[in-house]
């Protein structure tokens, strides 16, 4: 099963979910019995002007989430939407993983 959140579910997460703010990103989460463990990423043009930077930020967030799911650090039955902040620029994947794990632990 894919860990990517389908586009149609973003609105549901934003409407029913809760947000958690971090230094590098903002996480919206929705926990429900029928939810899959999936995540979507959003990066705005306002925060990242160049397309290269936006794409890198999205890649970093997706890879960090994938590695955290593989290690079992992300809770099951939870859908996530991660919004990249401008502080994410020039960061390493390890930094993003630590931030996501910290946000996930604040939820649990």
SSE layout and pairing:
Elements: H1 10-16, E1 18-21, E2 25-31, E3 38-42, H2 51-71, E4 78-84, H3 93-107
Parallel strand pairs: 3-4
Antiparallel strand pairs: 1-2, 2-4
Folded structure, characterized:
The chain is globular, with a radius of gyration of 13 Å. By secondary structure, it is α+β, with helices and mostly antiparallel strands. The protein has helices at 10-16, 51-71, 93-107, and strands at 18-21, 25-31, 38-42, 78-84. It has one domain (7-107): 2-Layer Sandwich (Ribosomal Protein S5, domain 2). The longest helix is centred in the middle third of the chain and has 21 residues, at 51-71.
Q: What is the CATH C level class, in words?
A: Alpha Beta
Q: Give the structural class.
A: alpha+beta
Strand order of the largest sheet: 1-2-4-3
Query: What's the SSE pattern?
Result: HEEEHEH
Low-confidence stretches: none
Number of strands: 4
- Per DSSP, the total helix count is 3
Strand portion, in percent? Answer: 15-25%
Q: Give the tally of structural domains.
A: 1
Which descriptors would you attach to this protein?
40% helix; single chain; globular; 3 helices; four-stranded mixed β-sheet; Ribosomal Protein S5, domain 2; 108 residues; alpha+beta
């Amino acid at each position: 099963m894919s860990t990517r959140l389908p586009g149609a579910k973003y609105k549901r997460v934003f409407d029913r979910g809760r947000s958690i703010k971090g230094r590098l990103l903002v996480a919206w989460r929705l926990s429900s019995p029928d939810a899959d463990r999936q995540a979507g990423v959003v990066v705005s043009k306002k925060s990242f002007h160049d397309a290269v930077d936006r794409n890198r930020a999205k890649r970093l967030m997706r890879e960090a989430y994938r590695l955290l799911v593989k290690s079992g650090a992300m809770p099951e039955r939870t859908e996530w939407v991660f919004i990249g902040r401008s502080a994410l620029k020039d960061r390493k994947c390890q930094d993003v993983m630590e931030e996501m794990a910290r946000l996930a632990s604040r939820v649990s």
